[in-house]
Amino acid sequence: MKDSEGIPFLQWCLPRLHLRWPGFRKVRRQVYRRIDRRMKELGIKTVPEYQSYLATHSAEWLELEKLCWISISRFYRDKRVFECLERNVLPHLARRTLEEQEHTIRCLCIGCAAGEEPFTLAILWNLVLSSQYPTLGLRIFATDADPHAIERAQRACYPASSLKDLPDGWRDKAFSQSQEGFCLKEEFRVPVTFQEEDVRSTGPEGRFHLILCRYLVFTYFDEEMQLKTLNAIMNRLLPGGALVIGKTESLPEGTLGVEAWREELKIFRKGEERAVLDPIA
User: The pTM is what?
Assistant: First the structure.
């Protein structure tokens, strides 16, 4: 599929999936390849034929949506964000948790891909912060709508390229090399629980001190779906808790209940008194 037919097709189908074209420009060719394979499976030769097929087979929209999810991640992605989490955000949340006489910081990673982000948090806590807060534990829940991504995350083995941004020494301390690549040691896997879930409809039980929702909702979803999803996220975030989105992303206009913690890093803090966002019908 070439841009001459792929771009008009994506601009036609994405709004029907509550997704937005600008988020897909950089990954469009990966989506093209997936759609090409799907068309071959169905014996369809042209894009207009596939559009006609979608018009008469409503279940195919679910298959098309799956083809549009492109997971791109690596350990310690956006170095300054994780440095801020290490030096500022997590210590603040740790002190607050201790003041409230609790014993666990609860984190949620939405759109966790193959586990790079939640495992980065687990490594950071284990290697840097756990000794400073010996009575505190870190519990991380990680979700993704792609079952194959969850399977890869549970295997926890990665190519060297996925680990290239880790600080010096972290790779050797946290990973063992094998035929599968660099596999995360067991003590760094224990704090993380993976669940196959679609952020638009479900999520783990309970409330969280820290929620990372990076390069998914506020990149790919349209404004209506962003607001609906943000409302659900805010309901899960404890007062005073931190919300982290992607460095190239922005919260929807008119978002209530959060204030900038580090604006340039897109780290926000929930207000002490929860403000209710207008629900989306």
Answer: 0.88
